[in-house]
Amino acid sequence: MSGRIRVANAPCSWGTLEFEGLGGEQIGYAQMLNELASTGYAGTELGNWGYMPTDPVTLLKELRAYQLSMRGAFVPVALAKASAHEEGNDRAIRTAKLLAATSDPNDPPFIVLADENGKIPARTNNAGRITADLELSSTDWKVFAQGAMQIARAVLETTGLRTVFHHHCAGYIETPAETARFLELTDPELIGLVFDTGHYVYGSGTNETSAQSGLDMFRDRIWYVHFKDCEPSVASEARMRGWDYFEAVGHGVFCELGHGCIDFAAVLDWLHAMNYTGWIVVEQDVLPGMGHPKESAARNRAYLRALGI
Predict the structure, then answer these.
(1) Which of 19, 39, 87, 138 could be bridged to 297 by S-S, CB 3.0 to 4.6 A?
(2) Per-residue pLDDT of the chain in tens (309 residues, 90 and over written 9)
């Protein structure tokens, strides 16, 4: 059964993040794809709009050159603001059209919808230790959910692609309770969840939370999975010192697989038990210029091979 789960990686593991003003030298997409493929991954996500070619013919040529499958694209939208929905909807459709034109219709990718993370100071400054007073108001919850469903519906009707929502630190849907609330307010036929192991544990506010607890809680909505580890000593220091999200990432809170507190063997056992046959996307979020992405990608792939995938 393990052979039915395929493994991809993403540009964020090479320091290409959706946030502005991070500095550092960005690794070009051609080098990233070459290193991603050469270290043993079968698929990639798109990365920021414009990082890879946005002409479908050119992008498809690049993907085929490395025998890579396009698995998804991250689309951040300030969903708590009704005024942001129309523009977010347009960007999601634009992105979905590119994905649909460069992917296998028998194995379609996802639009990975998220809040516009890193833009709200209170959430960015308190990532990993969110308290109830920082949550959305009841009115904002409705606006947020309605915007997400509007975008997911438009993407589906326009391109046939489905949308998964990404719970993510430094945004309004970070904690397990916030993720559960979002899913309660949205149509399970329209929006699924991309379950991110590292964001789930760090966003829970404690290193004692297991990824399996989130898998059990959200089992009926999980359509897609991100494998990200969480380094517990860094997470604890970030909470103690009051680091913001970017400081925590810069100190390596999302470490190489097998070096943190996520029990990936147990996660894989859970996925097999649920007959999950989709993709796993490895994400080791690093800032531009941080670490040695190719070497980390190779070690992460070797670690997963040792677990049987």
Answers:
(1) 39
(2) 345 899 999 999 998 776 555 455 789 999 999 999 999 999 999 999 999 999 999 999 999 999 999 999 999 999 999 999 999 999 999 999 999 999 999 999 999 999 999 999 999 999 999 999 999 999 999 999 999 999 999 999 999 999 999 999 999 999 999 999 999 999 999 999 999 999 999 999 998 999 999 999 999 999 999 999 999 999 999 999 999 999 999 999 999 999 999 999 999 999 999 999 999 999 998 877 778 999 999 999 999 999 999
Q: Are 141 and 181 in contact, with CB atoms under 8 Å apart?
A: yes
From residue 200, alpha-carbon distances to 193, 239, 242 in Å are 12, 15, 19
Q: What is the DSSP letter of 75?
A: E
Q: What angle do CA 258, 263, 269 make, to 5 degrees?
A: 120
Tokens of 257: 């697989």
Q: Which helix or strand (DSSP H or E) is residue 84 part of?
A: none
What is the Cα–Cα distance from 79 to 116, expressed in whole angstroms? Answer: 8
> How far apart (Å, rounded) are the C-alpha atoms in residues 264 and 249?
20
Round to whole Å and give the CA distance between 117 and 169.
7
DSSP 78: -
Q: Which CATH architecture has domain 2-306?
A: Alpha-Beta Barrel (3.20)
Q: How far is CA 234 from the centre of its chain?
A: 20
Residue 249 tokens read as 């990432």
The dihedral over CA atoms of 289, 114, 150, 276, expressed in degrees to the nearest 10, equals 110
- For 40, 162, 196, 276, 308, the CA distances from 5, given in Å and listed in that order, are 14, 19, 16, 7, 10
User: 3-class SS at 136?
Assistant: coil
